[in-house]
Design a protein that fits this description.
The structure holds two protein chains of two kinds. By secondary structure, chain A is α/β, with parallel strands linked by helices. Chain A has 17 helices and 31 strands. In chain A, 32% of the residues lie in helices and 24% in strands. Chain B is 6% helix and 38% strand. The longest helix of chain B has 17 residues. Classes of the chains: A alpha/beta, B mainly beta. Chain B: This is WD repeat domain 73.
């Protein structure tokens, strides 16, 4: 039976690194190539030995597809392509291609320069890796080769995130990390053209029920407001393409509403970078940001101004958005150093911080930090960790399946024991199988690909003319024909048509058999007796007693002649074409038994 | 997606909430629940009540609620579905059996109970392990269920006063039956000590029973009120001594009466006319509850989409109108209901057993809120003092 194999790579049950191998229709595809942020040794990379024990991966993979720029989805890409070795195409959307190398380089700098690691990819490797990237446009079918085609769809998780549709022949797989409301409302529109055999999604947050976005925003505003009210300063280290813009719009609206006067600043490095990327990828941004960008130039806010480093020393309350997001260098770190000593101040971390960064340390509760030159910094300000990231929760996964209508569901990155209920829920509601392979384990999904074949009109007419009940999809009926595969199409034609097309001569094959029969009657009488006998035995068959002295059963001809040696014996001559072989043998066996005595 | 016209109301209430709530979490379940029951310090059970198949879920509350010291460092705001199971019918009552991993449910259509095992670490599936027959087959309102810590585990249940029985969970053996001829439907059943329980009837009368004695239970008549068609609900505050226990009874017309357990039959301690808003057609979801750690505070829900908190300290014997100390309007302003003909109404609420002002509430649109309100009465004289 045809099957699709899916294997999440990696060691053990832990989550945090996405790298999924899919084998479909003889093609091998790698979906994402992430780094596990929690480990310092080789465990942070996916286990590529599953693909091949030694040597490069090029011969074993047809392509690599990256869903979005988060490090747990692309962090191991340079390692895979340059240190393990892969020269084939790496597909990702345009924004992902633009942003990935920046994050990889940042990450590399922190890991190598700050933590002094050696077995890590270099800047040059990142550049070489990105040279192998083939950018994808939304809704554009890309032929990876003659048989494998892929297509990217808007997912909305982060800028440039895509849902990928992979097709080989009539088998297909859809892979998605997380999908926002906008994308969800469009899934059913394009995906119902061919229900994918498998829908692959992450299940790390599948058993959560998320607190509303409004409550997260409320908490953010409350914390900022409380700090401002007591005269403190709020530092918000951000990544240029993270939630910074949304948080700015939120604060601006709040400030306007509450008539607040404290200044809000935005560091210029942030503005330039963000402006650049949003302009480039305007079609990829969400409604809110696009509306803001269209209404006014990105950062021309009423209450938010460009930051100058001297402002950090100004007295009184203020809010500052500065890069980089993990407090590992640059302006945000400088400001942090100045404000850390005052307990009236606050730092709000809106995202994950990589190990080795100041952000990571303070989020782990460290209150004394070692800075350059052995100086220690006392962290007295309030540290707040707020998560604004969107992940697929329990309800989201059910909605996704409801809209995409896959034939099978596959969830990766969950603990099987904690997912029995969800599996049961999916199987019950949708009557589909739900697979949950552990890392390193292969899930084999049997598919039932349909092969479309055209049937010639002649053949169809002939089959219809045979009579009997109309064709029923539940009751297959045997038919005779010839399957011709020409170029990429399959056609079912009658034998004659096939012979004609192939320019072959038709040969007829007839079997003849002699049966001896003891019967004292005259030849015509014996024939008549045979006719009566057969009519009673073979009900439903066309049996004719012809004027030329033969009995015909379908195409089988029966003749009677007297035996030369024995006057009471008859010789029956049976002849049939090979198509009626079964019936012919049956008749000869039957007649060999002789005729019943009661016949008239 | 929020309605455009609701955006403004949401904004007003939202901005106000920065000052009126310390914490606020808003969740959307796939299906509304009528039950919220603590199953441990950090987990609650909810369940659907549609007529066909439903889910029972055991939810772990977000870590952020419990991270007192390093609250800022914890970003975890979500519920986690710790265990889940499927039921064949509606779940209208759900009670956790203390000291076990069992919950007992009733579908509101008969008086029979279903027994479930919530599961441990090795599986996340809630399985049905058995059932307990009620004394009567068909019951309009279904059975009320009560339990307290006992070994072996026992469950108290009944649909009306003549049906009440105490059943041993594992064996199904009846340990005690309330002997009375009157068949008043119950609206409240609760243990106030290991052996004493209260059974409140819809007509407002209350039975006080001691399971150790074979003597007839004490029956207290309903409070002096208007009309026969008035329905009553009740709750008892469980104090260190059964004698310090107080009972609050609430009528469908909004009369709230507070009495001492000892003198239930005699006069009330105090009473008030509470602000019962637009009545929705079905009052099955009315809940009145004592705050576990705030002296004198009660909470009311089920009459509309609002949960109200009243401070009974300062109530007198006169039936006067009293304003709530606090109102949680979250379910109304952020309603996800698309059908405008039936406004959203609250279906359940519970207090956190230790955190003085933290409540969980659920509504008919599937929303579940966890909220920690700020006492608007700043002065020491007026504000309720937490016991701990």
């Amino acid at each position: 039976m045809p099957e699709i194999n899916v294997t999440p790579l990696g060691a053990g049950q832990d989550v945090g690194r996405s790298c999924i191998l899919v084998s479909i229709g003889g093609k091998n595809i790698m979906l994402d190539c992430g780094m596990h942020m929690g480990y310092n040794d080789d465990r942070r990379f996916p286990d590529f030995s599953y693909i091949t024990q030694n040597g490069r991966l090029t011969d074993f993979l047809d392509c690599v597809i990256i869903s979005h720029f988060h490090l747990d989805h692309c962090g191991a890409l340079p390692y895979m392509s340059e240190m393990v070795g892969y020269d084939g195409p790496i597909y990702m959307t345009h924004p992902t291609k633009a942003i990935c190398p920046i994050l990889l380089e940042d990450f590399r700098k922190i890991t190598v320069d700050k933590k002094g690691e050696t077995n890590f990819f270099t800047s040059q490797m990142i550049k070489d890796c990105m040279k192998k990237v083939v950018p994808l446009n939304l809704h554009q079918t890309v032929q990876v080769d003659d048989e494998l085609e892929i297509k990217a769809y808007y997912a909305g998780h982060v800028l440039g995130a895509a849902m990928v549709h992979i097709k080989v022949g009539s088998e297909s797989v859809v892979y998605t990390v997380s999908v926002n409301k906008y994308a969800k409302s469009h899934i059913s529109a394009w995906i119902d053209k061919c229900r994918p055999d498998i829908l692959i999604s992450e299940s790390t947050y599948a058993t959560t029920i998320r607190d509303s976005k409004r409550c997260r925003e409320r908490d953010f505003l409350k914390k900022v407001h409380e700090t401002i009210e007591r005269g403190g300063k709020v530092l918000i280290p951000v990544f240029a393409l993270g939630r910074a813009q949304e948080l700015c719009i939120l604060l601006e609206t709040f400030w306007e509403r509450m008539n607040l006067k404290a200044p809000i600043y935005f560091s210029t490095g942030l503005t330039e970078k963000a402006n650049h990327y949003y302009k480039l990828f305007i079609t990829w941004t969400n409604q809110k940001i696009r509306k803001t960008f269209v209404q006014r130039n990105m950062f021309e806010f009423k209450h938010i101004k460009a930051f100058d480093r001297s402002y950090a020393d100004n007295p009184g309350p203020m809010v500052v958005f500065a890069t980089p997001g993990m407090l590992h260098a640059g302006q945000s770190l400088q400001i942090f150093k100045k404000w850390a000593g005052n307990e009236k101040n606050m730092v709000i971390m809106p995202g994950y911080c990589v190990q080795g960064t100041i952000g990571h340390k303070i989020l782990n509760g460290q209150r004394k930090l070692e800075m350059e030159g052995r100086a220690t910094l006392d962290v007295k300000l309030q540290v707040e960790y707020m998560s604004f990231s969107a992940h697929a929760d329990a309800k989201g996964i059910m909605q996704l399946i409801r809209m995409a209508e896959p034939r099978n569901m596959l969830l990766v990155h969950g603990e099987a024991v904690k997912m029995e209920f969800l599996k049961g829920k999916i199987e019950q509601e949708f009557s589909i199988d739900c697979y949950m392979p552990a890392n390193g384990e292969t899930a084999t999904v049997t598919t039932n690909p349909s092969v479309p074949v055209d049937i010639s009109l002649n053949l169809l007419k002939r089959e219809m003319a045979l009579g009997g009940p109309l064709p029923d999809p539940k009751k297959p009926r045997t038919m005779h024909g010839t399957l011709i595969m020409k170029e990429n199409s399959l056609k079912l034609v009658s034998s004659e048509q096939a012979l004609k097309e192939l320019g072959l001569n038709e040969h007829q094959l007839r079997f003849t058999c002699r049966v001896q029969l003891q019967d004292p009657h005259s030849d015509p009488d014996t024939l008549h007796r045979i006719y009566t006998h057969l009519k009673s035995v073979l009900k439903g068959y066309t049996i004719q007693h012809l004027p030329d002295g033969t009995v015909m059963v379908e195409s089988i001809v029966i003749k009677v002649s007297s035996s030369a040696e024995d006057t009471n014996a008859k010789v029956l001559l049976l002849s049939w074409s090979y198509q009626d072989e079964d019936l012919g043998s049956f008749l000869s066996t039957l007649l060999k038994k002789g005729l019943p005595s009661g016949l008239c | 997606m929020e309605d455009v016209e609701f955006d403004d109301i949401l904004d007003d209430w939202f901005i106000e909430s920065l000052k009126t709530y310390k914490d606020l979490h808003v969740y959307q379940l796939e299906h509304p629940t009528q039950v919220i029951e603590w199953t441990s310090e950090k987990t609650v059970c909810v369940a659907g009540y549609s007529l066909s198949k439903n889910e029972i879920l055991e939810l772990r509350l977000p870590l952020k609620l419990f991270a007192d010291e390093n609250k800022g460092l914890c970003a975890e705001r979500d519920f986690k579905v710790a265990h889940g199971g499927f039921t064949d019918g509606p779940v209208r009552r759900l009670r956790h059996i203390p000291g076990t991993r069992c919950v007992v449910t009733n579908d509101g259509l008969s008086s029979d109970l279903q027994v479930w095992d919530l599961g441990g670490d090795d599986s996340d599936v809630i399985r049905r392990t058995g059932s307990i027959a009620g004394r009567r087959n068909v019951s309009e309102r279904g059975s009320r269920i009560a339990a307290r810590l006992s070994s072996p585990p026992e469950v108290l249940h009944g649909a009306q006063s003549s049906d009440i029985q105490l059943t041993e969970l594992t064996s199904g053996r009846t340990l005690y039956k309330l002997e009375t001829d009157s068949t008043d439907p119950l609206s409240f059943l609760q243990f106030v000590s290991d052996t004493v329980f209260l059974a409140g009837c819809c007509n407002g009368s209350v039975y006080v029973t001691d399971t150790r004695t074979s003597a007839a239970p004490q029956l207290s008549p309903p409070p002096a009120s208007s009309g026969d068609s008035v329905l009553w609900w009740a709750d008892a505050s469980v104090g260190p001594h059964p004698s310090s226990c107080r009972v609050v009874r609430l009528s469908s017309s909004g009369q709230a009466v507070v009495s001492d357990l000892r003198s239930l039959g005699g006069g009330a301690v105090c009473q008030a006319q509470v602000d019962v808003q637009e009545r929705c057609c079905n009052l099955d979801h009315v809940r009145v509850s004592w705050a576990p750690t705030l002296d004198d505070c009660i909470s009311v829900s089920g009459f509309s989409g609002v949960v109200q908190i009243y401070n009974t300290c300062g109530w007198s014997m006169e039936l006067q109108e009293r304003q709530p100390l606090f109102q949680h309007r979250g379910h109304v302003v952020s309603s996800q209901q698309t059908d405008d003909s039936t406004p959203v109404f609250t279906t359940a609420h519970i207090w956190h057993p230790e955190r003085p002002r933290t409540l969980l509430s659920a509504a008919s649109d599937g929303s579940v809120h966890v909220w920690d309100w700020v006492d608007p009465e700043q002065s020491a004289a007026g504000s309720p003092i937490p016991r701990t």
